[in-house]
Amino acid sequence: MSLEFGRDRFSIGRQDPPWKVVRAFPLAGGGKLVHLNNVSGGVLAGDRLALEVTVAPDAAAQITTTGATRLYRHRHGEADSEQHAAFHVGDRAQLEYLPDPVIPYAAARHHQRTEFHLGRGATLFWWEVSAPGRFASGERFAFERLRVQSSIAAAGRPILREDYLLEPSRKGVASPIRMLGYSHMASFYAVQEGRPVAFWRALEERLTEIACAHTSPGSTVWGASALVSDGVLVRGLAASGRSIHATLVEFWRAARIAITGIDAVPPRKIY
């Protein structure tokens, strides 16, 4: 699927099942909101999903999903499922990418790669959440393999590169050097190319205050850290997913006000 956001228009270059975008909704203050809908209900073994998004200079886009990304059981003889998303954000443009959680079901094998390329003065707000499986059905880290790769470049400079692999049957996820006794993981990124280091240190301190207020060891832990330049990262571990969304919204609102001077508006869902 390929999507393009301009200052006054939105266009779909191509879309093939299972992803579908029906329409764009106007955002208060300008920009467009779109919902990524997986019409198959989940990601199957062997699926290769590709998403390419272009946000034109001075444009604004907000992208969310209509539900969690469900990763189904791997089938013998099939390749691992894959999802590759590439975002190109033009000079002075803004992207908010706010998907629902990724839920790997028992025996799932999946590779997710997400990359952002930001122009001069471009802004990014992005979060991602991963769950341990179908918690209500008794699944807890019953998937076979989950590899997640993420990268952010600002004005051609790499400012974030992450690559982790979870294989619960080979290396226990509950290890103290991995997720200890926690089951859910969340990340939030706020980036704007060109801001000075002092700005990010101040924002790191503000987000650390929020992180401390929402940390309760054994239940939820949060922490914030400035990136090498141009941004800040917040990461959290939780024993359940109940409070994650509300806390992410609080981080997002604080970061958005600091960076843009405008409060965040959570995406309107269509289900």
General description of the model:
The chain is mainly β. It has one domain. The chain is 13% helix and 43% strand. It is built from two helices and 18 strands. The protein has helices spanning 197-213, 244-260, and strands at 2-5, 10-14, 19-20, 24-26, 32-38, 48-55, 60-65, 69-71, 81-89, 94-98, 102-104, 109-118, 123-130, 145-154, 157-166, 184-192, 220-226, 231-238. The strands form three sheets. Strands 3, 4, 5, 7, 10, 13, 16, 17 and 18 form a nine-stranded mixed β-sheet that branches. A hairpin with a 2-residue loop joins strand 14 and strand 15 (157-166). Helix 1 (197-213) packs antiparallel against helix 2. The chain is globular, with a radius of gyration of 18 Å.
Q: Keyphrases for this structure?
A:
271 residues, mainly beta, 9-stranded mixed sheet, 7-stranded mixed sheet, 18 strands, 43% strand
Number of strands: 18
DSSP summary: helix tally: 2
User: Gyration radius, to the nearest Å?
Assistant: 18 Å
Write down the secondary-structure element order: EEEEEEEEEEEEEEEEHEEH
Overall morphology: globular
- Give the quaternary arrangement of the chains: single chain
**SSE-based structural type:** mainly beta
Share of helical residues: 10-25%
Distance between the termini: 21 Å
What characterizes the major β-sheet?
Answer: 9 strands, mixed
Query: Beta-strand percentage?
Result: 35-45%
Residue windows where pLDDT falls under 50 for at least 5 positions: none
Question: In a nutshell, what does this entry contain?
Answer:
The chain is mostly beta strands. It has helices spanning 197-213, 244-260, and strands at 2-5, 10-14, 19-20, 24-26, 32-38, 48-55, 60-65, 69-71, 81-89, 94-98, 102-104, 109-118, 123-130, 145-154, 157-166, 184-192, 220-226, 231-238.
